[in-house]
Design brief:
heterodimer, A: 174 residues, Four Helix Bundle (Hemerythrin (Met), subunit A), 6 helices, 0% strand, B: mainly alpha, Helix Hairpins, 3 helices, 72% helix
Chain lengths: 174, 107
């Protein structure tokens, strides 16, 4: 069984370390690299959780397309050495970190306290409902309108992105 | 449950991992000044939510969570495209992608 605790702890350590590296490193190229590694580790977690198609989509869309977009824009910018990596203000920075830690603790506490409320089956016995075929059937019957709307939205976003990035003089066009 | 030490990994483990990754992404958005790294933080947060969906989908034998993750991924790709286009527009004007220039947006 792939649900061994060693696998989970290894993958979660990878994810947390890579995510921390994304926000701690001052060079944006390294941030993009570690974001890609974090996405790949997350895809492995999805694979362990029987979401095979979603794991493949994660690898293709996030670790492939979105990361290429990020890296291409970074290359386009040719940023020099970054002078101010983090936002100013020690007190506000500490306040932000404290608030984030508080939020994390709140979510963890809520998860811990609501254990018996969630009706969790011990183990998935029928793998029928987790095949890619079942996913496609669901997507093209019950969610077909949302799927088509998503296509229209992507077309609109593509046109809008081209229009915004071709504007003369950035946002201060006269 | 969380510190049981046995070989079983339950729903709670995945939810706590998701909360930690979400918090890291939120800290990236709050603390960094580079727009691109802030967008990366947003991607991390979206990934954490995706992990929650997949974990619930797996542990309750319900496939609708995977459909939601499919939609979230598509919207996230579109959002990254729009954000990067705005960053390019800002960079053309100011030769910098610091977040402080976004407050001078007008017109």
């Amino acid at each position: 069984m792939m649900h061994s605790s060693g696998m989970f702890y290894l993958l979660s350590t990878f994810i947390v370390v890579f995510s921390l590296a994304v926000i701690m490193l001052s060079n944006p190229i390294f941030s993009a690299l570690f974001l890609a590694l974090s996405m790949i580790s997350m895809a492995f977690v999805f694979f362990v959780l029987d979401a095979h198609f979603i794991a493949g989509v994660q690898l293709m869309v996030y670790a492939g397309a979105v990361m290429v977009l990020f890296v291409m824009v970074l290359m386009l910018f040719d940023l020099g050495k970054e002078t101010e990596v983090f936002s100013k203000g020690k007190f506000t920075g500490l306040l932000k970190i404290a608030c984030a830690g508080w939020l994390c603790g709140l979510i963890g506490g809520a998860v811990y306290m609501s254990t018996e409320m969630i009706d969790v089956e011990a183990q998935v016995t029928d793998s029928v409902s987790f095949t890619t075929k079942a996913l496609a059937t669901e997507l093209f019957t019950n969610y077909v309108f949302a799927f088509e709307a998503l296509g229209v939205l992507l077309l609109l976003v593509a046109i809008g992105v081209v229009a915004v990035s071709r504007m003369k003089g950035g946002t201060h066009a006269r | 449950m969380l510190d049981s030490g046995t070989a079983t990994i339950g729903l709670n483990h995945y939810l706590v991992l998701s909360a930690v990754v979400f918090t890291i992404g939120m800290l990236g958005v709050l603390l960094r000044r580079n727009v691109l790294v802030m967008l990366m933080g947003i991607e991390l947060m979206l990934n954490a939510v995706n992990l929650t969906f997949i974990a619930f989908s797996h542990f309750t034998s319900n496939i609708n969570g995977q459909i939601m993750v499919f939609f979230v991924m598509t919207i996230a790709a579109a959002e990254a495209g729009v954000g990067l286009a705005l960053a390019v527009a800002i960079f053309k004007k100011f030769k910098e992608v610091n977040i402080q220039f976004f407050e001078r947006l007008k017109g």
